[in-house]
Request: fold
Amino acid sequence: RNANLHSLRCDTMLKLGIAKQFKDDVIYFPYNVDFRGRAYPIPPNLNHLGSDLCRGVLHFAKKKPLGPTGLYWMKVQLANLYGYDKASFDGRAAFTDEHVEQIYDSA
Reply:
């Protein structure tokens, strides 16, 4: 158990260290494309396809508004992350609306 926690801590510290090095820079990710046409970022430790921690520390250099349906899909994704992913999309958005206080409390 301690070895697993040590490994997780080392991985977390590595990712946070990389993010800290680039915190004031605009970065771009080089990609490899496999024979099926799928694109994968080359950097293994910090990229947008990584863990929630990796995605959480990355920010877009140029902000854009969510658009007319962006908030709706964000609500759907919040419900998905909670595990409420078998309902319709409208049901998931409504679920998020019903639990908005709890969402703010956890943020």
About this structure: DSSP finds five helices and two strands in the chain. The first helix runs from residue 2 to 21. The mean pLDDT is 93.
